[in-house]
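Q: I'm building a small set of examples for a reading group on sequence design. Run inverse folding on the following structure and report the sequence directly after it, with nothing in between.
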């Protein structure tokens, strides 16, 4: 900010001498000088300007707007806003989540949205690290900004502006829950204190939030409690016409639980797989066993988390001190500690994937299962594959995350026309992740191997001639309870992974007024930035050696450095002419030199044309560049179990034509199909050091209008387009399987590894794919007026997609091609055509009433988990496939607040008033719905009390 010496001296004199008259007159002087003196930096540019409406479209969300809706989860609030799209991970993401909360602009993936705090990179884009009490406002730049901020600012920028000038003390307590799902509790407390002193200011604060767990079984939503899929031609047609009918004579839902059941499923060489029909927790006999049927599958739905619990504490300190009129030092310190947890159904111990006894059958076939000489084995022959749901042990994943951020910088003026900012930014993140309920391979090999009963009646591992000491033989055949605590203790192995990530940046910028032109003063500036990232991930030795159940993988380490030069200018071209109140050009350029791959130069051009007073035409065009992040390059190789089915399975064999069956047999699948009916497949994910950067361009054009003849009205309309090449993404397991065996795409067959015809794993590591595009319109309207003895405020924010193309697998043509995902659910992600937020507020003296509405347009999809797709006309592929619909949703919220004269404010709100339940989306991964997009718990409420001193 440009300093006004008279004003600064007046304020200083008032604070030092206590002269009341100076203190009271200083604000008046500020008001008189603001229009001509004060300049601020807005998101998307480092140049300080007096006008806020720039060439790049931006949405501003205030702390008051978040408070009105009772928001503590800042990331969830942002993702619900109209400017966001896609389905990033949230605390409602159980399987595949990690307790974090992320946001996604334009449905281009959260990694292409750059998150900043006060214009600088935080150590993590996880919004769990950002306390809501720290926020003054959030600026969402809806334009690429690589020329200003470098890599990652592809879809746009989310910049958190903190309460740097807060004064006083504010304590806030909030509690929230749902009416029907009353375990959906969240409690939070925050304390913020700020103080101005003679030459500076300081703010300190802390946030504490605790969120309780909600199981899918805690709700009365039928599909959350049942693993329903659509199977069969008649069911598919009924689902296409009527949607889900879960129960009753017209039901079209098929109950398809897991084949890893508490009573077991045992694969033998001599016949069909067996299960324990008695299942009493004892020692099983052959008479207890019978053929396994689909009716025996296990219902895992109710015991999965729908909302994951967490507990977090955020602490922050910010301050600045003026050494003199030209030099100020500032500091930002943030500390975050979070404990979070995910819980899945108990371990589905499956010797096809997991460690067990490895042996050879009499005919020489290798197997991984249970020895025929195991004391508890009732079959008298080797069990080639054993599947047992380990209810005795459970399965959960916990994270202990600590993050620290420190910024220190100097800013000030250089003479009358220039200003500078030099800062150092350090961030450190450490995570300890613990897996509970997993089993240890070397002990499993002994416990599932030969065992016998000695003379004392004890069950001993090994054989009478070669007993194994300190071993406990395991009984996987008797049903729940047959695995005793002693057995479980012997094979259980809590697994601990640890990772550390550090971020360091040094940024220097000098800007100001350069020279005058007839239309005004040319302003600009330039700077340098150094950034270094380091990652060190150490996996548990059991995972590293592949000796445990569950996901396995190796650790990794790596670093990334980049040196950057950047500059930008605002050039006034015309001013004070008919139909040209002002015409400014904006230009920015950035050069990034990476140590891991080639350098890149990006630029952005902008036009700001003030046609008449209140009417602005604006446009930008620029190039964007996204370098592979350190996790994309060096993330450790690990296991994943994505949703996918084997097209070559015996259950689908009859649906394949001769060519497709040939593709299967060429991969070693026996005629008749593989023995794989699983809805999830083992995949390997991780970093890829061969990745190259993404490159693309962005374009925006729009109008901003504030008519003089309607006080309080503001309108903006912007068209935007983003195109990316060499997109960094992974080919999904389902796409690799379908493309290889249904479409005959040879390169995709390279992603599938089989042994004896059965899938061993599928490669899902990131690669550089083809193109990605997004185009649409943003419309915003604001209106404020005085009426009915109070003040009304209205806001409308609407994003309409025109196009959102990705390279995806087309099941109609069995090829990969560019497909418009606009209005579709694809690859577990929602791409709604329209998202709209409307708010209306009324304030009368100390009372305020606010209404909020969120609209999400409907979706379509044509892939089912098992049944695949059904053509509208088998003889005419151009007519496409059956499209399954997801209805549009409208959510309504109301909040009432009252402020008392003694500084207390009480707010109560009811959200999702119409009690909307989440939609059933058959191929969706978590709970058969999109947990990131839709509200899961029906009608809810919150209450908040705050006290200011």
């Amino acid at each position: 900010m440009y300093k006004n010496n008279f004003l600064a001296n007046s304020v200083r004199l008032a604070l030092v001498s206590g002269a009341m008259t100076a203190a009271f007159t200083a604000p008046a002087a500020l008001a008189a000088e603001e229009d001509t003196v004060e300049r601020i930096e807005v998101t998307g540019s480092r140049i300080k300007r007096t006008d806020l409406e720039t060439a790049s479209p931006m949405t501003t969300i205030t702390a008051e707007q978040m408070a009105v809706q009772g928001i503590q989860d800042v990331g969830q609030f942002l993702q619900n806003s109209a400017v966001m799209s896609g389905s990033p991970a949230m605390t409602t993401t159980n399987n595949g989540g990690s307790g974090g909360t992320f946001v996604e602009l334009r449905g281009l993936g959260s990694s292409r949205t750059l998150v900043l705090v006060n214009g600088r990179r935080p150590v993590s884009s996880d919004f769990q690290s950002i306390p809501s009490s720290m926020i003054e406002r959030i600026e969402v730049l809806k334009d690429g900004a690589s020329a200003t901020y470098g890599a990652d600012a592809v879809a746009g920028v989310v910049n958190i502006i903190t309460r740097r000038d807060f004064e006083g003390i504010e304590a806030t307590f909030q509690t929230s829950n749902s009416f029907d799902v009353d375990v959906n509790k969240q409690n939070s407390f925050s304390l913020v204190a700020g103080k101005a002193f003679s030459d500076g200011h300081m703010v300190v604060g802390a946030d504490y939030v605790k969120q309780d767990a909600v199981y899918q079984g805690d709700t009365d939503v039928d599909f959350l409690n049942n693993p329903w899929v659509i199977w069969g031609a008649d069911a598919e047609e009924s689902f296409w016409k009527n949607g889900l009918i879960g129960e009753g004579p017209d039901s079209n839902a098929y109950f398809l639980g897991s084949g890893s059941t508490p009573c077991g499923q045992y694969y033998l060489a001599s016949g069909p797989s067996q299960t324990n029909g008695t299942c009493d927790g004892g020692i099983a006999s052959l008479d207890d066993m019978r053929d396994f049927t689909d009716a025996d599958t296990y219902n895992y739905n109710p015991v999965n988390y729908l909302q994951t619990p967490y507990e977090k504490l955020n602490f922050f300190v910010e301050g600045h001190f003026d050494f003199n009129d030209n030099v100020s030092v500032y500091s930002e310190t943030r500390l975050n500690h979070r404990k979070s947890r995910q819980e899945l159904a108990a371990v589905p111990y499956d010797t096809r994937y997991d460690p067990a006894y490895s042996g050879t059958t009499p005919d020489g076939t290798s197997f991984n299962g249970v020895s025929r000489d195991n004391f508890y084995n009732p079959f008298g022959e080797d069990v080639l594959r054993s599947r047992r749901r380990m209810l005795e042990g459970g399965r959960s994943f916990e994270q202990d995350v600590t993050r620290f951020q420190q910024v220190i910088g100097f800013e000030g003026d250089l003479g009358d026309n220039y200003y500078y900012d030099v800062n150092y930014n350090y961030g450190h993140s450490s995570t300890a992740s613990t897996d509970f309920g997993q089993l240890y391979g070397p002990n499993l090999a002994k416990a599932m191997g030969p065992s016998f009963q000695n003379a004392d009646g004890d069950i001993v591992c090994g054989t009478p001639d070669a007993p194994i000491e300190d071993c406990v033989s395991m009984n996987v055949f008797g049903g729940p309870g047959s695995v005793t605590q002693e057995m479980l203790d012997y094979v259980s192995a809590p697994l601990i992974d640890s990772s550390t990530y550090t971020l360091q940046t040094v940024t220097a910028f000098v800007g100001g007024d350069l020279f005058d032109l007839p239309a005004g003063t040319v302003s600009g500036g330039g700077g340098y930035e150094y950034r270094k990232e380091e990652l060190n991930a150490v996996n548990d030795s059991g995972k590293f050696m592949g000796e445990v159940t569950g996901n396995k993988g190796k650790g990794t380490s790596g670093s990334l450095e980049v040196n950057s030069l950047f500059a930008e200018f605002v050039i006034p071209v015309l001013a004070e002419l008919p139909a040209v109140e002002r015409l400014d050009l904006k230009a920015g350029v950035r050069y990034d030199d990476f140590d891991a791959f080639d350098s890149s130069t990006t630029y952005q051009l902008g036009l700001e044309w003030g046609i008449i007073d209140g009417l602005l035409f604006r446009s930008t065009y620029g190039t964007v560049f996204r370098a592979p992040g350190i996790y994309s390059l060096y993330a450790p190789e690990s296991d994943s179990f994505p949703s996918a089915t084997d097209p070559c399975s015996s259950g689908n064999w009859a649906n394949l034509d001769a060519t497709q069956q040939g593709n299967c047999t060429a991969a070693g699948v026996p005629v008749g199909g593989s023995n794989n009916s699983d809805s999830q497949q083992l995949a390997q994910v991780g970093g890829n050091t061969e990745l190259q950067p993404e490159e693309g361009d962005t374009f925006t054009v729009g109008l901003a209008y504030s008519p003089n003849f309607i006080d309080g009205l503001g309108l903006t309309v912007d068209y935007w387009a983003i195109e990316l090449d060499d997109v960094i993404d992974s080919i999904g397991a389902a796409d690799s399987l379908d493309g290889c065996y249904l479409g005959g795409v040879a390169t995709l067959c390279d992603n599938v590894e089989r042994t004896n015809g059965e899938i061993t794993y599928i490669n899902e590591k990131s690669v550089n794919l083809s193109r990605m595009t997004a185009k649409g319109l943003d419309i915003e309207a604001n209106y404020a007026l005085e009426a009915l003895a109070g003040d009304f405020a209205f806001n409308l924010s609407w994003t309409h997609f025109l196009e959102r193309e990705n390279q995806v697998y087309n099941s109609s043509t069995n090829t990969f091609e560019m497909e418009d995902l606009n209005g579709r659910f694809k690859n577990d992600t929602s791409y709604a055509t329209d998202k709209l937020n409307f708010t209306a507020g009324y304030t009368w003296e100390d009372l305020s009433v606010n209404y909020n509405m969120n609209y999400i347009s409907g979706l379509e999809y044509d892939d089912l988990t098992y049944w695949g797709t059904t053509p509208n006309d088998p003889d005419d592929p151009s007519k496409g496939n059956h499209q399954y619909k997801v209805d549009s949703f409208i959510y309504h919220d109301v909040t009432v607040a009252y402020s008392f004269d003694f500084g207390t404010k009480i707010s109560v709100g009811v959200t999702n008033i119409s009690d909307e339940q989440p939609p059933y989306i058959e191929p969706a991964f978590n709970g058969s719905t999109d947990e990131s997009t839709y509200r899961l718990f029906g009608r809810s409420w919150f209450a908040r009390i705050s006290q200011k001193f």
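The radius of gyration is 31 Å.
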